[in-house]
Write a structure and sequence with these properties.
The chain is α+β, with helices and mostly antiparallel strands and about 210 residues long. It has seven helices and seven strands; from the N terminus they run H-H-H-E-H-H-E-E-H-E-E-H-E-E. The strands form two sheets. The chain has a five-stranded mixed beta sheet. A hairpin with a 4-residue loop joins strand 4 and strand 5.
């Protein structure tokens, strides 16, 4: 980062300065993401700790902003005033949320390619009693007949080249391992009668 600042101070081209500013921003984002994703290490995945769920989700979404902009995705998220301090395995929470984001970005981008006028949107909210993350998007949604199958190992509706069928399987397994749950809600349904809302219930651990 210091070297980038030195080069920027001597640069004369506006294009070069803009490029260096972009590089610096990207490096800062990568540094933050490495710090957030550290809980995904072996030790981090297994050790419950006390943290602010609101802060964790806010930081994760902030570090996806560049990706959202690249894909034209509008994020609808208002950080709650409640910090939602919880004690659980942070690595599980990060991985579950990242998997939900990855799925949404994939399907929203695919829909955007098919319909250029489509305006993709991701909705995230954190609620209490019990503590839950409500996650949805305005993409094509999931056929109700696949409501439970999407969590099966190796089941995927993605194109064959990008199909692994492990993301939601691992996400639910992590949620259950931490005493919580991850479900695809039966309501609401989108304009095509398909499901598009996940509810991740987070359980306190001792």
């Amino acid at each position: 980062m210091e070297r980038i600042r030195e080069i920027r101070s001597t640069a004369t081209s506006d294009e070069v300065v803009t490029g260096l500013d972009g590089l610096a921003a990207s490096m800062k984002s990568i540094h933050k993401r490495l710090r957030i994703l550290d809980p995904l290490s072996v030790s981090g995945r297994q050790a419950p700790e006390t943290f602010s769920l609101t802060q964790l989700i806010s930081e994760t979404l902030e570090d996806h902003q560049t990706q959202f902009i690249r894909h034209g995705i509008h994020l609808k998220y208002e950080p709650p005033k409640d910090r939602f301090t919880t004690k659980t395995v942070k690595g599980y929470v990060v991985q579950i949320f990242e998997n939900l984001l990855a799925n949404s970005v994939y399907w929203l981008s695919l829909e955007k390619e098919k319909s250029p006028l489509f305006e993709p949107q991701i909705n995230v909210s954190i609620v209490g009693s019990p503590t839950r993350i409500i996650f949805s998007d305005n993409g094509p949604g999931i056929d109700p007949e696949h409501k439970d199958r999407i969590f099966d190992m190796f089941f995927s509706l993605k194109e064959s080249k990008k199909r692994r069928g492990l993301g939601l399987y691992i996400a639910r397994a992590n949620a259950v391992a931490a005493g919580g749950s991850l479900e695809l809600q039966e309501e609401p349904v989108n304009d095509f009668g398909r499901l598009n809302t996940f509810e991740y219930c987070i359980s306190e651990q001792t």
